C-alpha cells in the first residue's frame, strides 16, 4: 500500500491489527479470571515496530528506497505474546489481576479509537484532494 498513499495508512493498519490482538488477549485474560491455574498473557508490539522503523530510516539510500524499506519494516513487524509466570498468584494458582486487565482494556480501546480517527482523517483528506478531479 506504499504506492500513492505513502506508508501512513499501512502503518495505521498495522497498529490497528496489533491493538486488536492486544484487546483479544486482554479479553481472554478476563474470561479466564476464575480458571484455576490460568496464567495471564500480554501483547507488545511498539518496541519492535519502532526499532524496525528506526533501522529502515537510518539505512540510507534515496527517498524511494527508504520508503520501500519503511514499508517492509511495517509489513514484517508482528506482535509478541508473553505469559506471566512469575507474578504473584492466588490460592488457585491464577494470576489474572482484574483491575489491571480492565485498565488495559480501556486503554487499548481508546488507542484503537484514536487510530480509527487517524485513518478516517487521512482518507477524508485524500478524498478532498481528489474531489476536484
Compute the average pLDDT: 90
- Main sheet properties: 2 strands, antiparallel
Principal-axis shape: elongated
Q: Give the tally of β-strands.
A: 2
Task: Describe the structure concisely.
The protein is mostly helical and 133 residues long. The chain is built from 4 helices and 2 strands. The protein has one domain (8-130).
Could you explain the architecture of this structure?
This is Flagellar basal body rod protein FlgB. Keywords: Cell projection, Cilium, Flagellum. The chain has 4 helices and 2 strands, in the order H-E-H-H-E-H. With 133 residues, the protein is mainly alpha-helical. The chain has one domain. A two-stranded antiparallel ribbon has the order 1-2. Helix 1 (8-31) runs antiparallel to helix 4 and helix 2 (46-57) packs antiparallel against helix 3. The mean pLDDT is 90.
Q: What topology emerges from the helices and strands here?
A:
Blueprint: H1 8-31, E1 41-44, H2 46-57, H3 63-76, E2 80-83, H4 98-130
Antiparallel strand pairs: 1-2
Helix pairs in contact: 1-4, 2-3
Protein name: Flagellar basal body rod protein FlgB
Keywords: Cell projection, Cilium, Flagellum
Question: Characteristics of this structure?
Answer:
133 residues, mainly alpha, 62% helix, 6% strand
